[in-house]
Amino acid sequence: MSDTRSTDVHSEEAPEILAQGSEADLGEAGSQLSTAPVETAVPGSFGGSRAPGAKGWITWTAREIIGWTRWFWRQLTSMRVALILLFLLSLAAVPGSLIPQTGQNALKVQDFKDSHKTLGEIYDKLGLFHVYSSVWFSAIYILLFISLIGCIVPRTLQFTGQLRGRPPAAPKRLTRLPAYATWRTDADPEQVREAALAVLGRRRFRAHVAGDAVAAEKGYLREAGNLVFHIALVVMLVAFAWGQLYKTEGNKLIVEGDGFSNTLTQYDDFKSGNLFSDDNLVPFSFTLDKFTGTYERNGPNKGTPRTYQANITYSVGAYGKDKKTTIKVNEPLVIGDAKVYLVSHGYAPVVTVRDGKGNVVFHDAVPLLPIDSNVTSQGAIKVLDGYKNAEGQSEQLGFPAFFVPTFAGAGQGTMFSQFPALDYPVLAVSAYHGDLGVNAGIPQNVYQLDTKARGLKPFKDAKGDIVKARLLPGETMKLPGGNGSITFDKEIKSWAGFQVVQQPGTGWALGGAIAAIFGLAASLFIQRRRVWVRATTGADGVTVVEMAGLGRSESAKVPEELGDLAALVHEQAPTKTDENDETAESDESADDTTPDADPEQEPDAATPVPAAEGAQKK
Asked: Keywords for this entry (predicted)?
């Protein structure tokens, strides 16, 4: 009967093997388990001995330059330097998160400089107010990019060559490998090799017959995953750089019924990358048909939005067909590389301003900006043209406005809104006349009125107080001296704030990130290993089967896997049986020796006990 316990699997420490000089023993069999470049120490000199004379000096200098250049290139493309550069890049990005950046908010940068005179100058010289476009950040970014490219290209070529080739032939002495198994069988060497090919093929090894052994290899996805991870990092770097150079980000406030066209002059504020041009804007336009907002009425979440959406009609290109859609929070409208986000909401009371003769000089919805979560809003109503005072002189009018959608009520001591919905709308205004300064060439905030401007005077009543009033929808405040009036119409429109973001390369960045995760997982959890099965005819005519395994790094899985493979091959080529055991009882004159006796065993030595199956440390 066959006894599978006669297969003896041994495991040795990989460092011990190398210490014993097995690297020379294994030869090609132990090479190329990884395509990682070999780390080299700092050399003393590449030039060697310098010959006398000018020619010798030139030759020596050329060798030195070429040698040091190659050494620096190897260091730059090494994994150690790549990790250092990656760490430096993440460290260099920290100031960009802590210090105001010019590209994001120039006003905050100026405020920081005004508040910190000395520190502001130092930060400015170091480029800390524009970190991501600074020379030192770009240098780290470019060096990391070069390092990754220089590492990937040769490793990819080497890995491609390994895929096109075959697993190397078995070394001379398989006993020197970390995992080893052997037994004797009656099967022919050719039958053992065919059985080994079938078993290894079922286990998805790349296997072929090389001489008297079957050579097999598995785990190519480890190196493939490593390469995918590095290539994905390059893709992410390129995508981020491309996105930063060509990105655009603009905001636009739109009142119900008004529209927007994606051109530079239509934005309220706009930021872009260094390589942006007007031609990069995606051509589209849309109209805000209606904004819908409902809010929680009771409980701890009172005032929290339940419905917050904008119904729009949009078209793509100059002659695109109109399409209707709804933009919600975190559900933007996507058109090409552009995304339109809904970011804010407020109210735009409709007001009518008349002169002393009753002529309408202004009639429009005036958007006011919220200052709290209950949409308490403030702003300014400006009449720039068409108004004449009671004396027939042309003037400009300004009305500071304060609006609450839900008024607390007279005598409640507060003008702040109690709820974001239009339950009890009230508009509070005061009146000024004169020159608003819009023709001075100095930019003004359309939502603010500078009441201290030199050419602006307040309207005052008989008591000398500034004229002001709280108006309900439909009510009118008359200006003193027959100078006209302002009416809070019953119509109150909503406005919505949109952010249009265009950042090419985001899809590539996402794809690179996903590929990097899978590539890293493959490089961490898949092990590259090789297995050899040698079948030779011994001196006594019995087939000796040897199996050995070698992994890229020491792992308990290599002996375990080799034990499983050995058991499967052993089923096809079982251990040789002792024929004398079957006839020992009937033939007392049988010879004392057996066919399986060890030729080197002493006559009086005890028969060796088969070793238990499994991994053993020597």
From this structure: Cytochrome c-type biogenesis, Membrane, Transmembrane, Transmembrane helix
The H or E element that residue 113 is part of is helix 106-115
pLDDT, position 335: 93
| Tokens 């001296």, located at residue | 481
Q: Which is it for strands 9-11 and 615-617: parallel, antiparallel or unpaired? A: parallel
CA distance 182 to 570: 10
Structure tokens at 526: 């898949």
User: What is the mean pLDDT of the segment spanning 366-379?
Assistant: 95
DSSP string, 62-108: HHHHHHHHHHHHHHHTSHHHHHHHHHHHHHHTHHHHHS--TTT-HHH
- CB-count burial class (<10 Å; 0-12, 13-18, 19+) for 117: exposed
Encoded tokens for 24: 């020379």
HSE on the CB side for 479, CA within 13 Å? 26
Q: Give me the helices (H) in 376-525, please.
A: 506-525
Cβ neighbours of residue 530 closer than 8 Å, sequence gap 6 or more: 29, 33, 167, 168, 215, 216, 217, 218, 549, 550, 551
315: tokens are 């078209």
Sign of CA dihedral 330, 263, 289, 374: positive
Which one, of 243, 277, 241, lies nearest residue 504 by Cα?
A: 243
Token pair of 511 as six digits: 């794809």
Mean pLDDT (whole number) for 501-517? 91
CA 518 centroid distance within chain: 13
Q: What is the bridge-based pairing of β-strands 338-354 and 485-502?
A: antiparallel
Q: Please answer whether residues 486 and 353 qualify as being in contact, where contact means their C-beta atoms are separated by less than 8 angstroms.
A: yes
Report which of 542, 575, 563 is spatially closest to residue 183, judged by C-alpha positions. Answer: 575
User: Helices (H), strands (E): how many in the chain?
Assistant: 13, 25
Measured distance between the N- and C-terminal CA atoms of the chain, rounded to whole angstroms:
29
Q: What is the mean pLDDT of residues 529-542?
A: 92
Report which residue type is found at 224: A
* CA–CA dist 497, 348 (Å, integer): 12
In sequence order, the 6+-apart residues with CB closer than 8 A to the CB of 58 are none
Residue type, 518: F
Q: At what angle do helices 117-126 and 106-115 cross, to 10 degrees?
A: 130
Reply yes or no on whether the pLDDT at 194 is more than 70: yes
Cα–Cα–Cα angle for 510, 511, 517, rounded to 5 degrees: 90
Q: Which residues pair with 135 in a beta bridge?
A: none
Query: Where does the pLDDT of residue 309 fall: very low under 50, low under 70, confident under 90, or very high at 90 and above?
Result: very high
Q: Taking a C-beta distance cutoff of 8 angstroms, is the pair 576, 1 a contact?
A: no
Cα–chain center distance at 124? 29
Q: How do strand 456-458 and strand 485-502 relate by DSSP bridges?
A: unpaired
Dihedrals φ, ψ of 378, to 5°?
A: -140, 160
Nearest by Cα to 323 from 290, 284, 293: 284
Q: Give the residues across from 379 on adjacent strands.
A: 401
Contact 429, 404 (CB under 8 A): no
Q: Choose among 337, 410, 349: nearest CA to 375.
A: 349
Region 33-51 average pLDDT: 62
How many residues would you count in the chain? 618
What CA–CA distance (Å, rounded) separates 478 from 293?
34
Written as one letter, the residue type at 569 is V
Contact partners, residue 356, CB within 8 Å, separation at least 6: 388, 389, 390, 482, 483, 484
**Averaged pLDDT for residues 35-46:** 58
Segment (H or E) for 241: helix 220-246
